Amino acid sequence: MVPTGYVLVLAAVLFLLGLVGVVLRRNVIIVMMSVELMLNGVNMTLIGFARARGEMFGQAFSFMIIALAAAEAAVGLAILVAIFRTRRTVNVDEISLMRH
Amino acid sequence: MDLLSQKTPLSQRRPFISSLMATIALLVPWLATSVAWATPQAAAAAKTAPAFNGALWTFYIFGALTIAGALLTITRRNPVTAALWLVFTLFATAGVYLSLHATFMAAIQVLVYAGAIMVLFMFVVMMVGNTERQEFGIMRGLFSKVVALGAIALLGWRLISLLMRQAPAKAAMVSDGYGSVHSMGGVLFREYLFPFEAISVLLLVAIVGAVVISRRSTEEKEEV
Amino acid sequence: MKESFPLIWIPLLPLLGAAFNLLLGRKLSRRWVHTVAVGTVFGSLVMTLFVLRQLYAGWDSHHHTMVTLHHAVFDWINAGAVQIKFGLMADTLTGVMLFIVTFVGALIHLYSTGYMDHERDYARFFGYLNLFMGAMLLLVLGDNLVVLFLGWEGVGLCSYLLIGFWYDKSGTQKLGLENANAGRKAFIVNRIGDLAFIIGMFILFAAVGSLDFADLSAAAAQGPQGPLMSSYAPFGFGPFSLAGVAALFLFIGATGKSAQIPLYVWLPDAMAGPTPVSALIHAATMVTAGVYMVARMNFLYMLTPSVMAVVALVGALTAFVAATIGLAQNDIKKVLAYSTVSQLGYMFMGVGVGAYAAGIFHVFTHAFFKACLFLGAGAVIHALHHEQDIRRMGGLKSSLSVTRLTFLVATIAIAGIPPLSGFFSKDEILWKAISTANPAAPWLGPVIYVLGMAGAICTAFYMFRLYTLTFEGKCRLSAEEQAKIHPPDWRMATPLVVLAFGALVLGVLGLPGLFGEHANFFHNWLAPTVDQGAKFAALAIPGAHVTPAILSKSHGAEGGLMALSFAIALLGSVIAWRVYNKGPSVWARNLTDRFRGPYNAIYNKYFVDEFYFLVVIWPFKKIAWLLWKVVDALIIDLLCVRGSARIVDLMGRLVRQFQTGSVQHYLAGLLVGVGVILYVVAQPPDDFRIRANSIKAAGAPLKVLVGERVFFDARRPVDKAMRALEYKWDFDGDGKVDEPQAPTQQKGQKEQAQRWSKRQMANFIYKKPGRYRVVMDVRDTRWHTQARETQVIDVIDPNAPKVPVSGSSTHGKGVH
After folding, report:
1. So what's the pLDDT on residue C810?
2. What is the pLDDT of residues C390-406, one digit of tens each?
3. C-alpha angle A56-A62-A68 in degrees, rounded to nearest 5
4. What pairs with residue C772 in β-bridges?
5. Confidence class of residue C747 from pLDDT cuts 50, 70 and 90?
6. What is the largest CA-CA distance in chain B?
7. What is the pLDDT of residues C56-69, one digit of tens each?
8. CB distance A93–C668 less than 8 Å?
9. Which of C157, C178, C454, C704 could serve as C174's disulfide partner, Cβ 3.0–4.6 Å?
10. Which residues of chain B neighbour C675 with C-beta distances below 8 Å?
11. How close C686 gets to chain A, by Cα (Å)?
12. What angle do CA C401, C406, C408 make, to 5 degrees?
């Protein structure tokens, strides 16, 4: 049996590492990968709580989050491709269209 | 400033060898532990013989691998390498799920995440290519990044120190079929049928949206 | 008796015509424009004739009873206690006014089609003129003061619009700006009066709770206990009766609209408008609205003899002053304008002595002869291509024979020579003036009679001066100007003839009492409406109300004064004829040279405009300039508007720096926010209270006694799931932890410092007096946070004679 606190700590570490990646990296693709890491951290908490309560609902929820992550990745990468096609870059510092 | 300066140019390196090897190496303990330690039966057995907690050790191992994989993912220069380390991390996460008796979710993690989503990532990485210098954004926006890292550190410290103390140490007993496809199907198609269908519609919309966004417009086609 | 009648169509027809001409007229031909404009007014005239027939059928000349026609159009204002109905009413008084307005109005509309033939803004002119007709008819038809006021303001607006009609006129005598300024002057002077009018309405509403004429007269009929008789002492003045104050304010409004002293100054300037406008608005109809209002509110005025004296005196003064000014004017329209002011003064004199029928009769006759005069003047001006100076005219009787004839008839009428209409109406007013006793001012009758007679001789003089200078003698125009003179066409001539005929014969409607009790048709006709006030006054203020004097019974006196009046009019006329028969004579020049001072005074209108400029306009402009520069430009524009904009701009510049467009920056900001919130939330609550028996009052530092047990209290409701608080106390500020105490003395100080207590309270007894610093450390083991709070406390020895606080009592020094 795994203590739930351990699971949560692991999930927090995963989430924070993803956050660091999002903040530091300049390549949009790696930023998106870091977002996937954060999502996994969240997913892990859900599964950890599901284990702690001995129910399946948390797992069902994380299942849906995976589906959601798939959708997010698809749309996000599509946007990325579109941006790359017009601007020839995947560097977040150079993609600052929101300023204008 | 290039933290991890490499002598050889990016295009000539074969960055994914190490991560690929690591991924393959991960499969062995995964298979072993999943069969041996992390099943509910094994957990029940562990009750009677508390000397060795298989699930906990599974958790330790894969947890460590998860953290290592995540670290490597966010530090690789080359997106291909980073993606492969992400695959590694996802595999390790699946191992953690196993230690939590979420067998179906572990399988889904590997199939959907490491399989489908990462393939999509790899596809885009290949399409966009390593056309430019991939460096850490240390110097540009240094201030904001330091501040953000400080905030993350504070957040992590508070969060982890709180979790270490607060989270319940005990977990509930689980039944035999916990985390199996059968029980998962029961939950998904009974209690959560509508959200499930909604999610599938969302996926469909996302696919259509992705196609619309990423395809070239007709004018561009004419130019080409 | 009340009858129903669709009265709304009378004002509505011209209003529809106005809407038609103002909205569509520019696109349509002149034929359409004047057909609609004149047609609608003639429609109103026809309806008015129907109304008069109905009124006549219901009128009993012997018992002085009548029917009134009513039309409740719609509920206008419906707000709590304020219930204003848009109601119209026609009684005999309204009937007279309706007839004047529609008949003269229709003739002047017809005249205008000729006069304004070459005008560019044909449709605009007729649109305004129709709008005026609608507003004027609303004014006379309204069955309450609010509808009356609506028409009152409407005619004021049309007056403004039509005075400034040639606002861009150039190349003729006046620049457009002068015309526009004349319009503005009229408007602003009327505003002053209208303000008083509104105040009067407020007072009446406050007293009676309604502004319907029926309700007001019912209130007046309640005798001495009625709401209108309650006394009123504003700012310690008075006491006045409410009726008096309201009547006075309403009369001030009337002085604005009807050009009486002190607000008459706009009317002479109003001659800047086209001449038909002067005839219709500024002679025949609008300016008589004040007289109509006073006659309509006769029940109110009769209650206050002192205000009536004011009305009569103002009227008489205006009649005289304006007539003297008229003596020296050289502009044909200016003479007529002052004549109008003067005649309006006679009307107020009439209503001011309670002779409402006489006043309204003068309104009636005046409308005919003054409209005829103005239209004749207009014909002259038209024929002479906008020449208005009578010194340059003369000898026009041959070329403008019809104009000359009608003008002469009207001149005789206004001069007061029998048997023309003006004689009867003016003489009746003068007779009533001297034969009425006003208890509030017994001297009033002779004074206003003398003023009126002096005005009458001036009137006869200046009118014949005007006539002879214009039409008699030799023509003083150049030959080529003479060649261009053309007589008026039928559209302009017909109204002249009709009006002159009216001026000639209409006096028979108001034959004096000399010819028998029922000879005066006009008096009997109006009696049901205007005689009620006398009855109410006799009830409310018995013995103090305005009544006919003993003199009024004497037919001999009436006849004698009538002859005197005739003689005076004849005298003035003959002198003027003699003096000006051959043009501006040497005799006249000698006279003006001898009396240069008085002549200059009247020539320059007594410098009233200059006086007003100095006393009212100039200070007002300066104040306005100051308000503009200080309040508007400095405070509002610079500080409030531009200042706040500048602040927002600065903040925007500042905040814009954060708007880099980089997602990572935004995320960093988000994280910083999370960090701040987390930090704040995680800090342990760090305040504590000091309690002791000797502490009576709050203050810093708190004072406690030596040897007393002092409690330190950090208790608070704490969520156990969120907080795990631990405390450490140092009561005397020596850096050593006093609570929790070390279990044994051997333990080192270091270990002591790491001990924490979960208790939220502590207590301590101070052994020595002095000032101490109490330090509380608190930590939250759940969040790993720590905080420190310090308070200063004074410990006093109650037995010691003085508190041993060494010199400085600042925080740092004197603290242990």
Report:
1. 46
2. 888 888 888 888 899 99
3. 145
4. C793
5. low
6. 73
7. 998 888 888 888 99
8. no
9. C178
10. 150-151, 154-155
11. 30
12. 95
Cα C319 to Cα C340: distance, rounded to the nearest angstrom: 9
| C-alpha dihedral sign at A17, A23, A24, A28 | positive
CA distance C783 to chain B (A): 6
C-alpha B57/C-alpha C158 separation (Å) is 100
What is the reported pLDDT for B46? 54
Q: How far apart are CA B177 and CA B39, in angstroms?
A: 10
Q: How far apart are CA C139 and CA C158, in angstroms?
A: 13
Q: Identify the CATH number of the domain defined by range A4-92.
A: 1.10.287.3510
Torsion sign across C-alpha atoms C698, C702, C708, C709: positive
What class, spelled out in words, does domain B13-138 have in CATH? Answer: mainly alpha
Contact C660, B145 (CB under 8 A): no
| B1 within 8 A of B137, measured Cβ to Cβ | no
Tell me, yes or no, if B164 comes closer than 8 A to chain A by beta carbon: yes
> Hey, what amino acid is at C196?
A
Name the residue among C662, C671, C783 with its Cβ closest to that of B141: C662
Whether C296 shows a pLDDT value over 60: the answer reads yes
C675: contact with B, CB 8 A cutoff? yes
User: What's the first-to-final CA gap in chain B, in angstroms?
Assistant: 38
DSSP character at residue A99 = G
Task: Please tell me the predicted confidence (pLDDT) of residue C262.
Answer: 86
CA distance, residue C671 to nearest chain B CA (Å): 6
Class of domain C689-796: mainly beta
Domain extents in chain A? 4-92
C670 lies within 8 A of chain A by CB: no
pLDDT in tens, chain A (100 residues): 788 888 889 999 999 999 999 888 888 888 899 999 999 999 999 999 888 888 888 999 999 999 999 999 999 999 888 888 887 777 777 776 666 5
Residue C208 carries which side chain, given as an amino acid letter?
Answer: V
Contact: B213, A78; criterion CB under 8 Å: yes
> How many angstroms separate the CA atoms of C371 and C364, rounded?
11
How many whole angstroms separate alpha carbon C304 and alpha carbon C254? Answer: 17
Interchain pair A23, C671: CB under 8 A: yes
Cis peptide before C274 (omega within 30 of 0): no
The residues that bridge with C794 in the sheet, in sequence order, are C703, C771
Tokens at residue B174, please? 């689980």
- Tens digits of residue pLDDT in C783-794: 778 888 888 888
CA-based nearest residue in chain A for residue B67 = A14
DSSP state for residue C807 in the 8-state scheme: S
Interface test with B, best of A13, A35, A63 (most B CBs within 10 A): A63
Rounded to 10 degrees, the C-alpha dihedral C83/C89/C91/C96 comes to 120
Partner-chain contact C661 A97, CB within 8 Å: yes
C648 token code pair:
């927002």
- B93 in A contact zone (CB under 8 Å): yes
CB contact under 8 A, A6 and B101: no
Q: Which two tokens stand for residue C515?
A: 């010819």
Residues of chain C with CATH 2.60.40.10: 689-796
> Which residues 31-50 of A are in CB contact (within 8 Å) with B?
32-34, 36-37, 40, 43-44, 47-48, 50
Interaxial angle between packed helices B79-99 and B16-36, expressed in degrees from 0 to 180 and rounded to the nearest 10: 10
